[in-house]
Amino acid sequence: MKLFKHTFILVMVLFLLGIGTFAQAENAKEYADHIVYFNAFPTDSLPRQMTKQYGLKRSKNYAMINISVMEKGTGVPVGVKSDVSGNLKNLMGQSRTLEFREIKEGKAVYYIAQVGVQSHEVVNFNIDIKPDDSQEKYEIKFSKKF
C-alpha cells in the first residue's frame, strides 16, 4: 500500500510540475511519431517524501530536468523508452553533463536529472533523445532562469 501511495504521489507531482506545463508549446516538441515533453524546475517545489524516495536533493539551489517521450498514435499517447543524454551551459560558458535516470510508473516513462543551480542563473540545456522504437534522433534546446 505504501508503494502505491509513493507511486501515486510521484506520478501526480511529475504531472503537475512537468506534464501539466507541457501543454504549453514552449515545453513540448512534436515530431512525426513522437512528442517530447521537457521541463526544468527547482527541487524545493517537490514533496520531501518524493525527493527522499528518489535520492534527490531538495533545495532552491538544485534543479530537476524532466523529459518524457510519448508515441503519437490513436487515442492517448504512450510513454516510450528512450536513450536520453544532455548537457547544460550557463552564461559564463561553464558546462556540465546531465546524468539522466529512467523512472517507470505503470505505463509512464520519465527521464530525470538533477543539477546544482544558482539563484537567477540562466541555463541553456541541450538534450539528445533516441526513442528505442525509432531510428530518429531528436535534439531539444531550451533555456531556463532559476
Offer a few descriptive terms.
single chain; about 150 residues; alpha+beta; Immunoglobulin-like; 6-stranded antiparallel beta sheet; 4-stranded antiparallel beta sheet; 2 helices; 10 strands; globular; disordered N terminus
Could you characterize the architecture of this molecule?
The longest helix has 21 residues, at 2-22. Strands 1, 2, 3, 4, 7 and 8 form a six-stranded antiparallel β-sheet that branches. Mean pLDDT is 85; it is low at 3-24. A hairpin with a 2-residue loop joins strand 7 (101-105) and strand 8 (108-116). This protein has one domain (2-145): Immunoglobulin-like. It has helices at 2-22, 48-53, and strands spanning 28-30, 34-42, 62-71, 78-79, 82-90, 95-98, 101-105, 108-116, 122-131, 138-145. With 146 residues, it is an alpha+beta fold. It contains two helices and ten strands.
Describe the SSE topology:
Layout: H1 2-22, E1 28-30, E2 34-42, H2 48-53, E3 62-71, E4 78-79, E5 82-90, E6 95-98, E7 101-105, E8 108-116, E9 122-131, E10 138-145
Antiparallel strand pairs: 1-2, 2-3, 3-4, 3-8, 5-6, 5-9, 7-8, 9-10
